[in-house]
Structures are given as C-alpha cells and as structure tokens.
Design goal:
- The protein has three helices and four strands.
- The protein is of the alpha+beta class and about 110 residues long.
- It has two domains: about 55 residues; about 50 residues, no CATH class.
- A hairpin with a 4-residue loop joins strand 2 and strand 3.
- It is globular and about 40 Å long.
- It binds zinc ion (ZN).
Amino acid sequence: MAGGPNAAIIPCRHCAGPARRTHDGLETDWYECACGWKMGIDWEHGGPPKRPLWPITDRQRRAIEAIALMTDRDRRSIADLSDAERTELRGLYRIADGSEDEERAS
Ligand SMILES: [Zn+2]
C-alpha cells in the first residue's frame, strides 16, 4: 500500500472533485475521477500523507480550480509562465496541498 488509508481519495487536479483510488501499487497508486481524469501518484518520495486528503476546504478547492485554469490555459507548460504567474502558482499549490495550513498550525 503506497499512499495508505489517508490517500484513498484525493482531490482531482482537473475538477477538484473526489478522485478514488483504483489501484493500490507498491510505489504508485492510481486514481480516477468521475470527470474522467486519471492519474498515478508516486508516494515513495514524500511518503504517505499524514492526514486524510479528502475532504478539502473551500479554499483548497478554489486553489485547485485556479491551478487547473492556469496550467490548462492555451496548454502552456509551466516553463512558459511568467515569473509572476509562477510565484502565484507556487502559492496556490501550497494552499491546494494543505502545506500552508500545516505551517500556520505549527
Ligand atoms: Zn475530476
């Protein structure tokens, strides 16, 4: 079990809805959302999440939707973003994955 029980459901990076684990791998778990989004996540590097990844807060949902807009727009790669957009994106990712809240709590 790669991501463990806290990673059974993760927020979909496309629509911010719940994406359910469809395959439990040794290193990588696979997820599928009702919107059709599928993704494999390698939990080996950061280790399994310490708290449940679902449900997400309204703030996290808005951040994920903003990330999807920025990264889907014109199908640009991250490398094509301006410095200001990249800074904004970094901030959004920190909100989306909850790391900003963890810092505030500690
Ligand atoms: Zn989705």
